[in-house]
Write a structure and sequence with these properties.
CATH topology of the largest domain: Porin
Distance between the termini: 66 Å
CATH class of the largest domain: Mainly Beta
Strand content: over 45%
Shape: globular
Largest sheet: 16 strands, antiparallel, barrel
CATH architecture of the largest domain: Beta Barrel
Number of strands: 29
Strand order of the largest sheet: 12-13-14-15-16-17-18-19-20-21-22-25-26-27-28-29
Length: 588
């Protein structure tokens, strides 16, 4: 076969190099002052959109130079793209018009006949040739007899096939034959593909470089695999993510060495450059619930050079003061499995109550896999408070069990995924608490991308308390209130719930649900419409359901979402017509 006979090998394999070369010609110029934009007519909408997507505006220098070169380069790119979709005999007319400072180049296409697939010859070789995933891929090959040639689909299928084999441990899988034979005169193409799985490999020994101050046992906790497991690029990627999320390393590289395979095992080198373990952090934020807040924190991420974590923080807001310290030391071989000792003091001056809370505790966390964590904590709390003109003091020893699942792939831009958690806690007078009680609290968020422009979301929060006698037996920090950004943004923070003598005193139970629709503007901005309903209450027989609606703006900044909402309460006395809810800042 050669370029002078009826059979041609497609040019799609050289398209990437051609695009880079052409784009280099288009962009080597003086400071851009104008752009050459492209329009295509005479093609079906789907094809036109694909062609125009591959032809972004080209900058032109001022004074105007290179317009003819840009036209030639664009024509070359168009020709290559059309051939990739099977149009080898396409022709067109070109027309350039000036619009203000820019130029528009229109290609009026006459597509001509399209190359159709005549035969598809697929084969698999090697130990992995009978894998179910490979059989499924062969059964769903996207190009069949009589269908138009679409080389991007062909290349996507090849990539998916190799990815599937690599994920099963066939690290050197490749195509021993991959050809498309094209007859331009008779407008047909034969596809010839043979995939060779090669041998299946396991993970070999792991070596660490550049993190000598951390114990090896601590570093191995971040591995998503063990030596002897079947090799998987996905597990290497998860290992990389584990190290990145540790906030301990500035450079991370997880590198398999396919050149040093021994006895079917691939060795892995983890190269790390640690950040300074002792760090002072400062933060400034604002929320409509608590006002301006300032934070100062100190962390030692490698205390005693054993990977243990000391944390100290002070957070001052208009309505709260928080002093907290914790000490975490890893235990076992799994990431997230650890002991924790913590202590805190909180001064609260909120709408329904004021309180001083001293809290100390000791706990144990377990990582359950799949973003799930289980924790047990035994805490001792003393609380001095005032609510509704009544002052009190409480002392409680509270054992608790909490479970959480983080299912957002990108927590900084939480537009797709879910998270939920549950806490069970209680106290008993026989165990030195001032009241017998038990509580369960659950919360969850789910968001889904309907398209690149639209997203939907649901959220909910519920709590229930078992308590013999009056709610007065519990301090307000253990009661439920509604209102504010986390529950009902149309009502002031913690301003809703059961009342006594016209004063909100909090309740035994909580139920709030919400829904939202978001329209994205680019990648980093969105406009949201939302609805919430619920309240804090004492039994469903006394459950006044409050509701609010509103609109808001989201900015998905590098440090997390910034929210600005205007919420309107639909039900409830003493609520303003609308409430502005805003939050920005980072948590120490």
């Amino acid at each position: 076969m050669d370029g002078h006979g009826p059979f041609l090998k497609p040019r799609w394999t050289t398209l990437v190099r051609g695009l880079l070369l052409v784009w280099g010609v288009l962009t080597v110029s003086a400071t851009p002052a104008a752009e050459l934009r492209f329009q295509i007519t005479g093609a079906p909408d789907a094809l036109r959109a694909r062609l125009e997507q591959g032809m972004p505006p080209a900058p032109l220098a001022k004074p105007l130079t290179g317009l003819s070169d840009a036209q030639m380069a664009a024509a070359l790119r168009l020709r290559q793209a059309l051939e990739a979709y099977g149009y080898y005999d396409a022709r067109w007319q070109e027309h350039v018009v000036r619009k203000e400072d820019d130029y528009i180049l229109t290609f009026a296409l006459e597509l001509g006949p399209r190359i159709l697939v005549r035969n598809v010859d697929l084969h698999a070789q090697g130990p992995g040739s009978d894998l179910p995933v490979l059989r499924q891929l062969f059964a769903t090959f996207p190009l069949r007899h009589g269908e138009p040639l679409d080389q991007p689909l062909y290349d996507d299928w090849k990539t998916s096939t190799l990815d599937a084999l690599h994920a099963e441990g066939y690290a050197k899988a490749d195509f021993s034959r991959h050809e498309i034979l094209i007859n331009r005169k008779e407008h047909w193409a034969d596809i010839l593909l043979t995939v060779n799985s090669g041998s299946r490999y396991r993970f070999g020994e792991v070596s660490f470089q550049g993190a000598e101050t951390y114990p090896r046992r601590f570093l191995t906790r971040y591995l998503d695999f063990s030596p002897g497991d079947w090799y998987s690029p996905d597990r290497l990627a998860r290992t990389q993510a584990n190290f990145r999320n540790a906030d301990r390393f500035s450079v991370i590289a997880v590198l398999p060495d396919l050149r040093k395979v021994k006895d079917g095992r691939i060795p892995v080198t983890v190269m790390l450059k640690p950040l300074r373990p002792k760090r002072l952090k400062m933060g400034v934020g604002y929320s409509s619930d608590l006002g301006v807040n300032l934070g100062l924190g100190y962390d030692d991420y490698n205390a005693f050079r054993r990977g243990q974590h000391l944390h100290l923080s002070v957070t001052l807001a208009q309505r709260t003061l928080d002093l907290a310290t914790s000490y975490i030391w890893p235990v076992g071989d799994r990431l997230g499995s650890q002991y924790i000792v913590q202590a805190s003091y909180r001064n609260l001056d909120l709408i329904p109550y004021s309180a001083d809370v001293f809290d100390t505790g000791f706990g144990r966390d377990w990582h359950m896999g799949g973003g799930a964590n289980l924790g047990a904590l035994l805490s001792y709390q003393t609380i001095t408070y005032s609510i509704g003109g009544v002052s009190g003091r409480g002392r409680f020893i509270i054992p608790s069990l909490r479970y959480s699942v983080q299912g957002f792939p990108n927590p900084v831009r939480p537009v797709e995924g879910y998270s939920w958690g549950a806490v069970i806690q209680g106290g008993a007078r026989t165990l030195a608490s001032d009241a017998d009680f038990a509580q369960m609290h659950v919360h969850g968020v789910w968001r889904h991308l309907v398209s690149t422009e639209w997203g939907v979301g649901l959220q909910g929060e519920a709590g229930a308390t078992w308590l013999p006698g009056s709610i007065d037996r519990l301090p307000p920090t253990l009661r439920y209130f509604a209102g504010g950004q986390g529950t009902l943004p149309g009502y002031s923070f913690l301003s809703q719930g059961p009342e006594l003598n016209g004063v909100v005193v909090g309740g035994r139970d909580l139920l709030v649900v919400g829904a939202e629709v978001e329209r994205f503007i680019g990648r980093d901005w969105g406009i949201v419409a939302f609805y919430h309903a619920g309240n804090a209450f004492d039994g469903f027989a006394r459950f006044p359901v409050l509701q609010d609606v509103g609109v808001g703006v989201r900015w998905y900044s590098p440090f997390g979402p910034v929210r600005l909402d205007i919420a309107h309460p639909l039900i409830g006395p003493s609520a303003p017509f609308a409430r502005v809810v805003f939050s920005v800042g980072v948590t120490l």
